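Bug #77: duplicate submission created two jobs. Keeping one. Sequence:
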Amino acid sequence: MIMPTDGAAWAGWDERHRGVTRGMEDIEKSAIPTFVDVARVLHLAAARVVLVPTVASIGRLLQPLAHLIMRAVSLLALTLSSVVSAQPVRSLIKPDMEFAEPFSHPTGLKELPDGRVVVIDTREKSVQVVDFTKGRLHKLGRVGGGPGEFGLPSSLHALPGDTSAIFDPLNSRFLLITPKGEVGDIMRTSASAAAGKRGGPVTVTISQPRYVDARGRFYRLGDDIQMIDGAPAIPDSLPILRLDRLTYTTDTLGYVRQPKTALTSSEGQGDMQVSMGVANPFAAGEEWFVTPDGRVGILRTQPYRMDWIAPSKVSGPAIPTPRLKLSEAHKQQWRASRSATTLVVMNSGTGGQGPREAVGVRMPEPTDWPEYLPPFLRSGQSIFVAPDGRVWVARTREAKDNTPSYDVFDASGKVALRVALAPRTRVIGFGRGVVYTLRSDEDDLQYLQRHRLPLYP
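Kept job's structure:
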């Protein structure tokens, strides 16, 4: 038919279009979308593509239709992969709550006992408490080196007793947040332990942890650069270390293979200069994680599977994955994400003896691009552990696919279900029965959202 151009006719078409959109949203909210569901939406959307007499009418028609059809195609692709691997799909499209005030670059959160949320923003150097119910935002502490202050809130961790610990690399310490959402004491990163083998005191230094379990034990990887045969080198594998803060003992729980990284060194006038390259962001590598009860696992890429390594060793089944080629569009997306400088903490002053400061550094572009994408990226934003011990893994996808999806692994190492999010959103953390996501707008401002956790099969 010919699309009318008068306002009344357009109003009628808009109402029909909204009906198709509502149908699409109903399908996205369903537990397991079917081929019939997706085909129905594609058919209804295609039925709106009609011959129109003006360029303005064409633009007005095709813009919402293109968005609708792309959503249907993305959902169809996710449904196809789910059927092949026999995993149900849950969609988290519309949040239960979204906080109105945006953030710049949130890097961690911790839910308080009363439902409020502590959020750290590294770019803004801020620590804030979000109250979804009252729609309020309350800032904690300030930038500095005194009591109740922080230099750079780098990471946020849950400690026993509903206490939160913010790691501050500039001041080499942790700032504690009480269960009531107030600034607490300072926890130093070094302390004297019991006498060592030779009878003298032992000083233990706590580096930035990656995970903290329910008993308050810290987990991190060993140092990237090690001295091997008298020369600095980057080992193929790094140890997973666990520090018990009560006994100040450190255990090695296993090893994680690392992507190859170039390293050069030179000596002169009694000093050694070391230059380390940048690992390719799309290189296949292993990632590790720790559950609240202290179980340690590793995600493999060849094949894609989950292995538990502590306290007992259990290997999960291989997960079928499509082979996705790394495209120029993927590289452009990575370049856009690195358009801003990266903060690096270093000592200032002559000989590196001055105070620590965060320095902006532009990371060089790698040259060894792989041909295919790995199942997940080692970005620090790909793996999240829920309070129930399930592990959420962000999957790689085609550059034009704007629907993020997560594999949710259970304790047996199997993928229990897949979760699809709305476009331009990502997971940032969990609370009691909820998952928190971040939605980015066109200006890259990020809005904190809260969803009820999907029901597991």
